[in-house]
Description:
Layout: H1 7-36, H2 40-134, E1 137-146, E2 152-158, H3 161-167, H4 178-184, H5 188-204, E3 208-215, E4 221-232, E5 237-246, H6 248-294, H7 299-325, E6 334-336, H8 338-353, E7 357-362, E8 369-372, H9 374-390, E9 396-407, H10 409-414, E10 421-430, H11 437-440, H12 460-470, E11 474-479, E12 485-494, E13 516-520, H13 524-535, E14 540-544, H14 547-554, E15 563-567, H15 575-585, E16 590-595, E17 603-604, E18 607-608, E19 613-616, H16 621-639
Helix pairs in contact: 1-2, 6-7, 6-13, 7-12, 8-9, 9-12, 13-16, 14-15
Amino acid sequence: MGKRPGNRTRVLLAIVGSLSLLLGLAGLSRALSELSARTPLLVAQIALGVGLVMASLLLGMVLLARTGSSDAAKVAEANAERDHQAALRTEAEQALRDVQATLESRVQERTAALQRANEELDQALQVARAVTSVARCLLWYSHIEQGEDGIVHWDTQFLDEEAAKRVLPVVVPPGRSYLYAAYDSRIYEDRAQFQALANEALLKNEGFRAEFRCRMEDGSLRWFSEDVFIESRGEGRWWAVGVALDITDLKRLEDQLLQAQKLESVGRLAGGIAHDFNNLLTAILGFAELAQDECALDTQGQAYLGNIRQAAERATNLTRQLLAFARRQIIEPKVLNLNALILELDTLLRRLIGEHIELVFLPDENLHCVKVDAGQLEQILVNLVVNARDAMPDGGKITIETQNTLLDAEYAQQHTGVIPGEYVLLAVSDTGAGMDEAIRLHIFEPFFTTKEKGRGTGLGLATVYGIVKQAGGHIWLYSEPGEGATFKIYLPRTQVSAGAASSAPQPSGQRGGSETILLVEDEPAVRMLAVHALRGRGYTVLEARNGEEALRIVKGREHAIALLITDVVMPQMSGKELAERLQGICPTLKVLFASGYTENTIVHHGVLEPDIAFLSKPFTPSALAQKVRAMFDQSESASG
């Protein structure tokens, strides 16, 4: 079926048809005029027919004109509608192009942002892997989901498994993954603690921290501290990231620090006890000596007093060991060479250990000098050698070694309290039974001993520890069961060369004098003993219980006093403060400090300040008189 012609086409055809009809009528009119002359009736009939045709044609033309006008209006309306639709389509196309441009811009921006995020993530992963290898840590992530049965499933992966294997080398059972073996290497109770913390953290949607131990491939244990960060994804799903840092070295340092703090606390306690105990021992020893010297006793009475003095002297040795451990003992450090000192003690040490034990000395021929108290160093060697002997009842070998060494910053980081620098090493090793960790942790504590009851006081190694610390050194024990033991002592090197020590002759304790002495002592028994000993040798003695009383007694006659004897530790006013106030009035006043417990008022790390005279408690009347006479004689020699 063909297309129907449009309005415009129909109008054109009607016009063309009308024009053709008019032309035909014109031709017919000429023919009729010629024919009318011949047949008038036929012409009239033809004219009537033509008129009817003409009327019909005119009516058709009118109708055609009306139809053409209506179609033209519709065409115009259609054209307007078409133009409107075209305009709308154009606007829609432009809006679509604008939206497309906006979307393309946003896509480009988002793509650039994703690229930057990926680059940053790559950089972060590179940094994380670098940190993993350098800082000895494990990095992992996990997708967590709670199943319908209520069981929480962890889908965990290491960020860098190869790096994790270097940090945590463990035994991987056949058919198991490294991830499984790594988690299974945790000590059981640590795994249980982690699981409990993880379950609680998932409920609270928050992170947590846990410490755990892992059994390494070689059987050793290492400590890790793990921080876990958790983010909820809703509907029983979470995302977790974990960082586990190897803190084994930190744990070791913490243990060393706790041990040092414990020993320091015990040392303060021991020092305080020794201070009070020395006052009591001064009275016991002093009055026992006075009784022996001044009382007419029979042989049995003298023997009783002798036993009292022997017991008091043994107690004195105990307090000295306590003070050495507490680093409160007055020392006289001198520059010396350890090799020379050890050679001097060789005969004594061999006598102590017996013939069934071999003693080997390996000296460093170019050994540096140290500044220590010679008597204390001898005590260190004797204690260590005797302990080594007791660890080898069936015989063995003791090795004493000296060596110059440098303790660097890395060593100092791994050992609490060590200052990097040059040291002299003194090592004493044995081939005995060795010690486990439980014994090693307590070996330097006072009164701790592994010997049977009745053998030793448990103060030997505690004394060694205190002496080494007071000398500014360090001591470490290395031992395993069945592998013997090695004590390594590091003493700071001194740049001063060792010199020959000279000793001045000591005056007799029986000599006296007539000088005036101010005695200040807060302990009544000690004060009574000292007053009796000094007055019995001809001195004039003014006594006081404390500093305030002493200032009142000497007011107005300060210049008549030749010597001040004062306790260091007293209530209200210390001995040093009293001495400074009196010397401010009389600069030539001599001062003798006496104490059984050193404070930093007159000593620094156990070493007396220059030109300080000191008498250690407990003392006897003869020792006091001897010290006093030596001070007066020294002054007379200087003035002469």
